[in-house]
Amino acid sequence: MASYKTGSSGPEVVKIQTKLAALGYYAGPLDGRFGGGTEGAVKAFQKDTGGLDVDGAVGPYTWKALFKRTIPAPALHEEPVNWRCLALTGTFETSCGIPDCFAGISGDFDGQGISFGVLQWNFGQGSLQPLLSKMFTTQRAIVDSIFHEQAPVLEAVLKASREDQLKFARTIQHPVRHAVNEPWAGMFRALGRSAEFQAIETGAAAEVLAGAKKDCRTFGLKSERALALLFDIRVQNGGIGPVTRARIRADFESLPSAAPDLEVLKMRIVANRRAEGAKPEWVNDVRTRKLCIANGEGVVHGVHYDLEAQFGLSLAAA
Fold first, then answer.
1. Where are the domains of the chain?
2. Tell me: the pLDDT tens digits for 246-272?
3. What is the 3-class SS of the chain, one letter each residue?
4. CATH 3.40.50.10190 for domain 11-72
5. I want to staple 185 with a disulfide (CB 3.0 to 4.6 A). Which of 22, 180, 257, 288 is the partner?
6. What are the tens digits of pLDDT across the range 196-230?
């Protein structure tokens, strides 16, 4: 059963914020991010309503009190598994929920000019330009409706040399903090929130997803959660090297073949072994993130995740 609390995001959270605002409990932005302001408003509503746990979370009872109907499954659950895997990793990568994880933007802190999108494609490596060019080619009307008079500027940038592209990127951001200036930051975010550009992002991630599916076959893993785990490993850690792969297989040999939770046990081994191969300063971070996926829930960077409730990623076959 779905439940929304601090760290949740998406269209359902917008509905919650809108309803609480109409009732006079919430005065913040209708941004789909369940933060402290939304939690405080929920607690106030729960306290005034009576008969509800004052926990700041919108579960089935609080939802019914707000909307007079049963809590629905999140709209995200209707998306293809590839899209849901991408959304999960994008949420980890950008620290933004849906849809803003598809619109994450950062400046030249790493020398890449601008990084944008769910997997932070960038100008420096030449990975962002093809996505933007495809949007111009296939969805020019949408580009024009978002960028207006700046659309020809961005189009000219995409046709320029890599050096000039990086120079342009650095002119539209703070030289020290590397935050992208307005109106460019807002225009790029609007682009990332569009279904059309999200489809382009999903297509650009297809090769990584195909590699993750191959890894699942290699390790005999079949679930949606396993696909999410192997995809996240490829994005954050570049995959699994031959030595780590051999150690994982050796660990698998000690597992009882008839264990009812064999899929989860295998995923935990993959998560721990890949974390061990990370740089020492990142081992704990990688382990926490990967075990969250393997176990189906956990806390990453202070946010609690429930993969099945939030992303529809379960032990069902991928």
1. 11-72, 104-203, 206-311
2. 999 999 999 998 889 999 999 999 999
3. CCCECCCCECHHHHHHHHHHHHCCCCCCCCCCECCHHHHHHHHHHHHHHCCCCCCCCECHHHHHHHHCCCCCCCHHHHCCHHHHHHHHHHHHHHCCCCCHHHHCEECHHHCCCCEECCCCEECCCCCCHHHHHHHHHHCHHHHHHHHHHHHHHHHHHHHCCHHHHHHHHHHCECCCCCCECCCHHHHHHHHHHCHHHHHHHHHHCHHHHHHHHHHHHHHCCCEHHHHHHHHHHHHHHCCCCHHHHHHHHHHHCCCCCCCCCHHHHHHHHHHHHHHHCCCHHHHHHHHHHHHHHHHCEEEECCEEEEHHHHHCCCCCEC
4. no
5. 180
6. 999 999 999 999 999 999 999 999 999 999 999 99
